[in-house]
Design brief:
Elements: H1 4-17, E1 21-22, H2 24-40, H3 49-62, E2 77-78, H4 81-85, H5 88-102
Antiparallel strand pairs: 1-2
Helix pairs in contact: 1-2, 1-3, 1-5
Length: 103
């Protein structure tokens, strides 16, 4: 069962599989191919996951894992060096840790 925090790792994982750069459509197809079962069993997230993937990408841009797209919706998503190196498990769980620390 997927949760929103994992979408960041899904995006990086998909981009790595696609050579580091891909369109939004290619990324979502890759995520679906690998995580279909998780997405189908994620409750209400099943209906919003493609939207949530975009928020995950924005988080990744803000934190230096994806290159900026300069407001160009057609610009492919591209990993930075940090995106290639980041640990996927740490990326998926980082929001949980931040929330616990601020509580």
């Amino acid at each position: 069962m997927a949760n929103r925090n994992e979408f960041r790792a899904f995006v990086v994982e998909a981009l790595r599989a696609l050579g580091g750069s891909a369109t939004v459509l290619e990324v979502t197809k890759q995520v679906w191919q690998v995580h279909e079962a998780d997405l189908r069993h994620s409750g209400d997230l099943f209906y919003t996951w493609q939207y949530d993937i975009r928020w995950a990408a924005q988080y990744l841009r803000n934190n230096g894992y994806l290159k900026t797209v300069d407001r160009d919706r057609n610009h492919p998503w591209e990993l930075t060096e940090s995106g290639w190196q980041v640990d996927l498990m740490a990326l998926a769980s980082s929001a949980k840790k931040k929330r616990k620390a601020s509580s």
